[in-house]
Structure formats: C-alpha cells, structure tokens
Amino acid sequence: MNIYFACSITGGREFEAAYQEIVAALTAEGHEIPTSHLVQSDVMENEHELSPQDVYERDVNWIKKCDVLIAEVSVPSHGVGYEIGAALNIGKPVLCIYQKERKVSKMITGNSDPMLSIQAYANVEEAISQVRIFLGNL
C-alpha cells in the first residue's frame, strides 16, 4: 500500500523516534512510504535546498497518489493539518494518531468525516498496532 506518513518537521521533533519506528514497521511490512525521509534526523538539512513551492507541489502530488494518509499529530503542525485536510478533501482515508496526554486540535477531533479515524496511544508499539488495525480495516 502507498502510505503518506505525515509528521511535524518545523513545529518540533519531540516524537522523532516514534515517527522512525512507525515508518520502519510499515516499510518492513512492504508498504511504500514516499515521505519516509521526513522521519530522519537530518530532514531539515536535506529539505532546506527545496523551495516552498517545490515542497508543496511534491507533497500534494504524493497525497494524490497515496492510498491512505497516516499522521502523527502529537506535535501541532500547520503542514500536517493542511495535509490531513487535503487528503480528506479528495476522499483519502486518514488516520491521526497521537500520544495520550497530548492535546490535539479541535479542528481534527471535531471533524466527523467518515474517512477520518483518530486514535491515542500510550507507547509506540500501541501506535503501530493501531496503524495495522486501521490498514486492515480498509
């Protein structure tokens, strides 16, 4: 399956290790993740050469081509919020996962779109389990 994995980049990298483990698990299961480079520690260095327009066009194109969008939303991010909205707008299934104890925007938690699922997790193993359940239910 082609999965667009969305995570905070400029908003904060507090959960970078979780991003990496989730993407590693999905990749090991044979999923294609065009955004896998965004979970790496050197993402800011590698992305700085791209113009904002290049990033926008690339990412919107990846969203159009993906089967699903999975977003880790523990850290607020304008970009991730935009990506979630863009995916839902074109009918893509979206899973938002976040660490329990974190506050998530009411623009996400209040959205009743049937293509949107939202799950809290206690640890990365539970996050991966929730992702697998979501994908298995598609």
Overall description:
With 138 residues, the chain is of the alpha/beta class. It has a single domain (3-136), classed as Rossmann fold (3-Layer(aba) Sandwich), CATH 3.40.50.450. It contains six helices and four strands; from the N terminus they run βαααβαβαβα. The chain has a four-stranded parallel beta sheet with strand order 1-2-3-4, sandwiched between helices. Helix 4 (78-89) links the parallel strand 2 and strand 3.
DSSP strand count? 4
Mean pLDDT: 93
SS field, number of helical segments: 6
Termini Cα gap: 11 Å
Largest beta sheet: strand ordering:
1-2-3-4
Q: In what range is the share of β-strand residues?
A: 15-25%
Order of helices and strands: EHHHEHEHEH
Q: What's the helical proportion of residues?
A: 40-55%
Give the second-level CATH assignment, the architecture.
Answer: 3-Layer(aba) Sandwich
The low-pLDDT segments are none
What structural class do helix, strand and pairing data support? alpha/beta
Q: What is Rg?
A: 14 Å
Query: How many domain regions?
Result: 1
- The name of the CATH topology is Rossmann fold
User: Main β-sheet, in a few words?
Assistant: 4 strands, parallel
Note the overall shape.
Answer: globular
The CATH class assignment is Alpha Beta
What are the salient characteristics of this protein?
single chain, 138 residues, alpha/beta, Rossmann fold, 4-stranded parallel sheet, 6 helices, 15% strand
